[in-house]
Amino acid sequence: MDAFRLLMLRALEEIAQRVYKAVNDLPEEFDKSKTLYMGADGTPTSAIDKTAEDAVLYALDELNLEVNILSEEAGFIDRGYAQTLVVDPVDGTHNASLGLPFYTVSLAVGEKSLRDIQYAVVKNLVTGDTYCAEKGAGAQFNGQKITVKKFDTKFPSLLCYVGHYVHQDTLDKVRKCAPIRSLGCASIEMCLVASGNFDAYYYNTEQYSKNIRVVDIAASALILREAGGEIVDLDNNILDMPFDLETRCSFIAYDDEKVKEILL
Fold it and tell me: What is the pLDDT of residues 55-69, one digit of tens each?
């Protein structure tokens, strides 16, 4: 078991590093935002998405990692194993196309759903900063242990989705919190709660189809939970999502029960 644990942790870090190198080795003239085809999740696959996913798949073959694959672009690839690697090759594709330094590769390994994820890595594909976690062993940022911060009720800090499909309820909450930021990359935003930079990440849309998928937050969910935070849906249920591309959810990721109560 210890050997498998060590193998899996090193493998995820190695895969993330290979994606980082593949993306950063692209020539300046490379059109990151060019749409190539529709991905398995029903959204367009861009050139940078394909570059990152290819790096993941090549690495899996070379490392001979005994996992199935669930990827935003390729969908579910059943390789006959008990555990599945849940991948978002590039979380924050639109940021990448705009040159904003907030996009990541997100990698998590578990069996069936969000609640049983055992290992996680989120790597910023611009800065190289890396968040990782192992279930029951805590979370780290660049090799240093991280924990959520103590909530200050007088100065709540909030990250939130404020895109085209933002719910009015989100805008109402924005007026009551400071500071407010929306970075366009769910994995980074949840990790910033885990590392004590923000109190919560609030994600709520007007359309079910625009809500979050498990590939977006599989890794960052474990990182946040191992740092002392939690995630609930908007009905106040501990968030769990199956390993598929159909299920969507709005949620609150938070550092303290008081934050959750305020937002709900």
Answer: 999 999 899 899 999
> Does the predicted TM-score (pTM) go above 0.85?
yes
What whole-number distance in Å separates Cα of residue 37 and Cα of residue 43? Answer: 9
Helix residue spans in 27-68 (DSSP H): 47-63
Q: Are 232 and 260 spatial neighbours (Cβ–Cβ below 8 Å)?
A: yes
Lowest model confidence (mean pLDDT) among 29-33, 40-44, 132-136? 40-44
Sheet holding 180-181, edge to edge: 180-181, 158-160, 200-203, 251-254, 230-233
> If one looks up domain 158-263 in CATH, what number appears?
3.40.190.80
CA distance 220 to 133: 9
pLDDT digits (tens, 9 = 90+) for 73-123: 889 999 999 999 999 999 999 999 898 999 999 999 999 999 999 999 999
For the domain covering 2-146, report its CATH number. 3.30.540.10
CA distances from 41 to 38, 88, 187, 192, 203 (A): 8, 11, 17, 26, 19
Segments making up each domain of the chain, as ranges: 2-146, 158-263
Strand stretches in the chain, DSSP E: 35-38, 44-46, 68-71, 75-77, 84-91, 104-110, 119-124, 130-134, 139-141, 144-146, 158-160, 180-181, 200-203, 230-233, 251-254
